């Protein structure tokens, strides 16, 4: 399977990340994250809202 190239940096590729919802149900492809650590681009879905970011930070949980 080939993943799409990051259009922000053209160096990394976007990989899908999954998570679990509040009730424990799996949420497939909740986020797509660039593999280039210098880029850090990501796009994700939170409670039905789409957010696009330029940097990634660790979870505080």
Commentary on this structure:
By secondary structure, this protein is an all-beta fold. It has a domain at 14-53. 0% of the residues lie in helices and 43% in strands. The protein has no helices and 4 strands. A 4-stranded antiparallel β-sheet has the order 1-2-3-4, with no helix packed on it. A hairpin with a 2-residue loop joins strand 3 (42-46) and strand 4. It is globular and about 35 Å long. The N and C termini lie far apart (32 Å). The mean pLDDT is 85.
Which sequence of strands runs across the widest sheet?
1-2-3-4
Distance between the termini: 32 Å
Mean pLDDT: 85
Structural class: mainly beta
- As a percent range, the share of strand residues is 35-45%
What's the tally of helices?
A: 0
Number of strands: 4
Looking at how many chains there are and whether they match, the oligomeric state comes to single chain
Query: What's the main sheet like?
Result: 4 strands, antiparallel
Overall outline:
globular
Rg, nearest Å: 12 Å
Low-pLDDT regions: none
Query: Roughly how much helix do the residues carry, as a percent range?
Result: under 10%
Order of helices and strands: EEEE
């Amino acid at each position: 399977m080939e993943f799409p190239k990051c259009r922000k940096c053209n160096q990394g590729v976007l990989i899908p990340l999954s998570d679990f919802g509040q009730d424990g149900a799996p949420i497939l492809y909740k986020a797509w994250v660039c593999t280039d650590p210098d880029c850090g681009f990501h796009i994700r879905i939170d409670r039905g809202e789409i957010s696009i970011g330029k940097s990634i930070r660790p979870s505080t949980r």
